[in-house]
Amino acid sequence: MSRYKNKPNFRSHRYSSSETDSETYYPKAKRMNTKSLSKPISQKANTDNEMPTNTDKSGSSKNMTSEKSTDDLYALMMTIKQNQDSLRNSLEQRMTNLESSFKQQIQINMGKIRDEMTLEFAEFDNKLKALDNKLKQPDNSVQITTQENFAQHKLIFKNVNYTDDGDSTESLKAYVDGLLSNLDLNFTSLNVQRIGNHNNGTDQQRPKPLIVTFHNAKDRIDVLKKKRLLNTKDDYKNIYIETDRTRQERMQEANIRRIVKKIPELEFKGETDDSRTLRENILTSLNFDIVGISESHLRDEQTIDLNGYKWIGNNRKTISTNAWRGSGGVGFLIKNNVFNNFDVNIFDRNRDDILWIYLQCKYDQDVKFYFCVCYLQPERSCRGNIAQEFYDSLLSQIYLYSTGVPIFLCGDFNGRSGLQQDFDDTLDMVLPRQPIDETKNAFGDYLLDFLRDAKCCMLNGRGQKNKDNFTYVSPQGMSVVDYMIVPYGELTKVSNFEVQLVSDLVIDYNIQLSSNVRLPDHSILTCVIHFSEYEEINKLSETIHHSSNTISGNTFNRKYNISTIPRDIFNSERCVRSLQSIIDSMLHRNNIENRINTIYERLVKTLHDEMDEYMEYTDFNESTNKRKRNIGKPYWNAELQQLLLETNKTEKEFLKFKGDRRIRKQLENNYKLKRREFDKRLRQEKRKYTAERLNRIKTMNTSNPKEFWREINKLGPGKENTKIDCVVFNEGGYSNDPNIILGRWKEEYAKLFFGEFK
C-alpha cells in the first residue's frame, strides 16, 4: 500500500513541451520516520470510488502538485544527510588507518637505523683493535712483509756446473750475470747461492741448484719471460729456470710425486686385476714344478707373486721413460717343494730377455739341470733388427753350458718355421716333426739356422697329433711362434708334450671369466721330463711331505684327523714286529748306505698302515680341490657357460680344418661371431648385475640402514691371508730365517720412513 495520496501513473503520463521544469518527476527517497502527511486510506478509497467531475479535476491537480513538491524536498534533504554521514565515517576510518600505518613504518625504519648503527659501531671497534695490534707489533709485521717480498724475488737455476774456485759467491754471480746478458737483459742479480755442500757434487752426481735473488719483482718476471731462449744458446741449453718455493711446498710436491709413482702398484677397494687373476688360476690349476714366462711386462725390481711359487726373473733394463709399464722381460716360477731338493741360482742374465737358471740337487751334486727362457721381439717391432745378434748370443751360451749337463729352452721366438725341418737330415738322425703351421717368415729362418748349429730340436710337431696346436690364436689369425727346445740327446727324456689353448683350460678347470678380461692369445706349452735320479729324489720327497694312496691307478692325497688319536696306536702286534725288523736292519752296517732309502720307505709304510687302520682320514684329488678354490662370478649363469662352450667348439673346428679355403674362411667367421657374441653377453650380464646391486643398496639406504652399511663393506676386495715365509735377495737367492726376514723388513721400512727411494 502506497504512502502517497495520489500515486502518479508513470506509464500513462506523458510530458509535453509546454510543461515546466517544476512539473518534472524525480524519484523520491524513502522517509526515515513513520509520520505521513497524506490523508487516511479510507478517505482515499472513498475518493477513488467516486466519479469526479470536471470542476473537481482542476482542484485535485493543484493539490497533487503541492503535495509532490513537499515530499521531494524532504527526500532530497534526507539523501544529503545520509551522504554526509557516510563521508564522515569514511574520513574517520581513513585517518585511523593512516595513523596506524605511520606508526608501523616509523617502528620498522627505526629498527633498521638501529641495526645499521650497531654494525657501524662494531666495524669501527674492529678497526680500532686491528690498529692497536699493529701498533703493538710493528717489528714483526715489517719483518714478515720483508721476508715475503724477498722470497718473491728469487728463482732456481738448475744444472749449473761447479766452478773451479770452489763455488764462490763472486764466480756464481758472474756466471748468472753472463746468462742474463745472453738473454738480452740489462740488469744483474742481487745474490747467488748454491743449495747444499760442495763436497756432494762429483762428476757422477747432478750439480746442486742455485738460488738467485733479484732486486725487484719486475726483474724476476723478465727472466721467466725470456728463459725459453736458453734452448738456442749452446752454452746454456741445459740450464733450467724455475720459481722458488718454500720448504713446505717442496715437500708437498715430493710427496705427490711419490704417490703418483706408486699409483700403478695400488689396488683400490672394489677393483681387482681380473687378467692377473685369470692367469693365476690357470697356473695354479696346472700345478707344474717349473713355469717359464715370456713377456712378463715387469719393470725395475717388480716380481710376480703366486701362492706356492717363487719368482726368478730378468726384467728389461732399457725401456722408455714414458712407458707406464715394462716391456719384454722373462722369468721362471718355481714351486716351493723344488727348493726342498735343489739349490736354484741365477746363472746368466746379462742380456735382456734371456735368463738361465741352474738347478743342483742337494743330495747328489752330480744331478744338474740348466733351464733357459727367451723372448725375441716381433719382426716389425722397433727391435726387429737384433735377431742375428740374439741368436749368436744364445748359441754361444749353449756351447758354454752344454758340457754334459742337460739343458732346456723355451720361449716366444716370434719365428714361423713353416714345413722345413729343424735338423740336417744328411748328418743327424732325429725324428722328423709334423708341423701344422705352413707359413714361414724371416725370423723362422734365423731359428732353423740356430737349431742346426746348436744341435737342438723343437718339441713342437713331435708329440701326439691330437695334443699339438697353434701357439698363438686370436681373431686376427693363428700361428706357431712359441717353442720348447732340447738337444738331440735329450729328446727321448721328454714326453707328453702338449699345446693347450687357454679357452680349453678355462672350460676344463671351470674358471669363470669377467667382462673386462681378455683371454690370452698365446697358448700354454707343457711337457714332462724324465730323469731317473730326479724321480727317485722327488719320490722320496713326496713320501716325506705328503701321504698318498693309490686307488684304481689314481693318486689321492690323504688327510688324517689328528684331533682324535687313539691311545693304542702303534701297539698292534703287526706294527711292533715290523718296527723291530726295521731296527734289526739298521743294526747291520753292511751296505747300509745302499739300503737306507729302502729302510726309510719301509718305516714310512709301516706308520701309514697303522694310521690308516686306527685313524680317520679323507682322500681328495688335488686338481679337484683347486677348482673349488676358484671364486665364481656372481653374474655367471648357464647361458654364458653354453656360449663359452660353443665358442670353444667353433675355435677347434677352425684350427683343425685343412680343406677348402672358402670353407676355412667361413669357419673363421663363425668363430669370430661366436666370440663376439659371448663377449657381448658377458658384458650385458655384468652390467645387469651391477645395476641390480646398486638399486638394492639404494633401497637399503632408506629401509634398512644397518643392512646398507653391511652391503657397503662387502664392496672391498676379499681378504687374503699372506704368509711371508721367505725373503728374496737382489742377487736371486732367498732365505727362510725369521731373523733375516725381520731384518730385511726393518731395512725396507727405514728407507720408506726416511724417504730413501731409488
From TrEMBL:
Residues 81-134 form a coiled coil. This is Endonuclease/exonuclease/phosphatase domain-containing protein. It comes from the Eukaryota. Keywords: Coiled coil. Residues 278-486 form the Endonuclease/exonuclease/phosphatase domain. It comes from Mytilus galloprovincialis. InterPro entries: Endo/exonu/phosph_ase_sf (IPR036691), Endo/exonuclease/phosphatase (IPR005135). The keyword NAD does not apply. Residues 34-67 have a biased composition (Polar residues). One of its GO terms (molecular function) is catalytic activity. Residues 1-14 have a biased composition (Basic residues). Residues 15-26 have a biased composition (Low complexity). Residues 1-67 are annotated as: Disordered.
